[in-house]
Amino acid sequence: MQPGNIAIGIASQQPAFDKQGYFKWPVRFMLQSNALQDGWIIQRILAKTFTYAAQGVGTVGKFEVQSDIGEWKEQEAPTIEYWEAWKVKAGTQVIDHEGKMTDYDDEYEQSGTPKSRGIAGVQGWAKFYVGELPADFVKMNSATKAWAVRSTNARPAFWDDTTNATRHDLLLRWTPQSATCTTFAPNKSAYEL
């Protein structure tokens, strides 16, 4: 795969979030000009959550947690990193959803935990590449939780880190009394409950 050298724009709405660590933030990607050949918007994801609650055993987003002297602890590897890909056909600027109607292209989401406090962050770097997607990008990849989107948790050989990438970030801080959600995509906004 080769860089497609077309910038990516991101359209988003205000994220939904609450005082239990829940968040949901749908976005749409769009190339800034038509693709000259078929390609892929590929996004590197880096996500981490720290959650603390007074009692109980349960899950926080994609992390299993267990009670230990009143604190919740993350699973062994609380940082998740993977790459996900969406097809863009030549002559277009938008993701090809194969005729399916969708409200968004990508969504950052985490379920919440009652009576908790914590911080969750998701960072994304999106770039456009042309060529054939490597075979290790698969749908329903349980190692990435990207589900319907082709993804891999192995760094692609063609990925040239985050240079010239479009950022797509979310940071949520919450307590039982309040929550603040900050997003960057590419205009920074902060929301509070």
Describe this structure in words.
The chain is mainly beta and 193 residues long. It has one domain. It is 0% helix and 50% strand. The chain is built from no helices and 16 strands. The protein has strands at 2-3, 8-12, 16-17, 23-31, 39-53, 58-60, 63-68, 71-73, 80-88, 106-110, 116-130, 150-152, 166-167, 169-174, 179-184, 188-192. The strands form three sheets. Strands 1, 5, 9, 11, 12, 13, 14, 15 and 16 form a nine-stranded antiparallel sheet that branches. Strands 2, 3, 4 and 10 form a four-stranded antiparallel sheet that branches. It is elongated and about 50 Å long. The protein starts with a strand and ends with a strand. 35% of the residues are buried. Mean pLDDT is 82; it is low at 62-70 and 72-77.
Characteristics:
mainly beta, four-stranded antiparallel sheet, about 0% helix
